[in-house]
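Troubleshooting log. The previous run stalled partway through. Resubmitting the same two chains, unchanged.
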Amino acid sequence: MTATTLPLTSTGPQDEVRPQLRLVVAGSVDDGKSTLVGRLLYDTKSILADQYDAIEAASKRRGAQEVDLALLTDGLRAEREQGITIDVAYRYFTTPARSFILADTPGHTQYTRNTVTGASTADAALILVDVRNGALVQTRRHAAVMALLRVPHVIFAVNKMDAVDWSEERFEEIADQIREIGERLGIEDVRIVPISALTGENVASSTASDGTKAGTWHDGPPLLDILENLDVQAVEQSLPFRFPVQLVIRPRTAEHPDYRGLAGRVSSGRVALGDKVTAHPSGLTSTVTGIDSPQGPLAQAQAGDSVTVLLRDELDVGRGEVLTTPEEPSRTIDEIEGVVAWLDERPSRHNARLLVKVGTKVVRGLLTTVRGHWDVDSLAWTNPGADVALNDIARITVRLSEPVAVDDYATDRSTGAFLLIDPPTGATLAAGMVGDPLAGAPIAAEIEEDDDEDWLGAGSSI
Amino acid sequence: MSALVLDDVSAEQTDTIRALEAESIQIIREVVAEFDRPALLFSGGKDSAVLLHLALKAMTPAPLPITLLHVDTGHNLPEVIDFRDRIVAEHGLDLVVANVEDWIADGRLQERPDGTRNPLQTVPLLDTVNERRFDALLGGARRDEDRARAKERIFSVRDAFGGWDPRRQRPELWQVYNGRHAPGEHTRVFPISNWTELDVWHYIDIESVELPSIYYAHERPVWLRDGMWMTPGPWGQPAEGDELLVKRPLPDGG
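Second attempt completed without errors. Output:
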């Protein structure tokens, strides 16, 4: 079999196909997030008839004139009583153009833990802003977390436009606030879109659900159009090849006596038959002779594909190693300097013994230094040496028991991510990012200068 | 002749399904790599058939190093049991069946007054997990099944009683899964969490995943009880005065 007879990738040509979009939605209390999520589900016909009948009846019982779409997703009271505090809810909807996985994060309590969790897997973020309140502290916090987690596209939906009679002046005023936030945080792609989740105007279509259009001045695309057309795979595909090995497949059967394949999922870039690859941390190099996929042998695999890579030489390479292109290898380190978001109720302790999971590798670690805490309101780094508690974001140093292969999170979101795990309970204590995740942002330079100015007037009202 | 009529699967849908497939295979491989004795809950239903299909693909060309586990209520349609046994034989798989009947026979469980056995499955499941020392159970549950499941994790830690403590459920970040657990505990893993009902049917279509024949339209003797068409079996027979008809169910349930 030669390379030319094999299909290029498992997913076929990418030109016209818009891949699934993973979207994290965040908003403050009463921004209308539940109504917007309900509106998206309803307008994309993702609601079954009996579900709709149930919320229609419930709305009538409450004396509402219109059907309250927020009831489709509201279910939090009972959960709060049960004490669930980690409550990112995943919801699904599909349009003819694209399918969506929506991570719905609550706005009020525990916002950092939930937003970090939802943002970690997101291709795009949707942040709700109440047009009557403008970009509040909570908006800035959400934007800061999205920037820290390096969500590539951040869409600010300025909601409740109906409540200000679709005032263009008011919208532009808030759009200016948002643009300033986006620039300071170095968010690459900021979109700002006026909507009314209540009437449906500019959500799935440019008109309200009754066919009227109040914001006649607005000629940009509606929110759903923007979401349907975001180009989300480009980043991972253009990065250098990275392939964390999950396991070695060795059938040792009569049919496949000598098969030895490295199974894993391409996290970045692409690999083709004949490519030279280097394993890290071992540093061993070989040539790709086969790529087996769920659809059979391929000539090439790309970011997102789960494949099994066959090499010319039988290298002693297994779980925990990362295959990379030799030209642009990952870094092998035995000490992580990075930023963590603390997710557990128990705070960090100085010199705490931890497990560190990087990709498919787990090593022992020692939390040696807390270099500073991030104040997400002022964006200053404060309190070096202080313990890191739930919802804190801190710069830390962790010494490792053995070397691991990583990239800076700022360049690669998958090989630059790590977890801190509590050895006795196995609980996930923190989500970590190698290096400075805000590298390249204007705010990163300010951080270096230890600038603690009240950067966006966080203390003053807007 | 299929009872469910699908439109042609579009390029977008195929792309979505391949992305979901890649994610599920990654999760299954994590389980094989990190756990000592994983089992896959296989009922013969469509979601578990898709899960098994994915597990076989995840390890190909090696044999599947995962035991299949079926908690059999004794109330299954014969087509489902035939299908289960045929798939097991075809792929040379290791199947453990926990028969709810056995637990009732020796008094560890009592039959419920209403005759339904679904709630009785927990004890045989946990007894078998403890006896066989399974440390991971792969299941075909999906988050879109109902609102209550929208917050379930892909790796869900259970205590020795199978209990789900919301405080112990871990946030899941990136594609880094944390399956660590204490001795005596096990982890439930749901590799198709992010699939919708329609994704499952599209996948069955494009991959020609085999299902029990009763998933498809066919004629069958039925009678009406409390608004539901029932077919005679060990779970019940028509009462006196119930009219037994032969019907062919339609996709809309008519």
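Takeaways: The CA atoms of residues 79 and 213 of chain B lie 7 Å apart. The mean pLDDT of chain B is 87.
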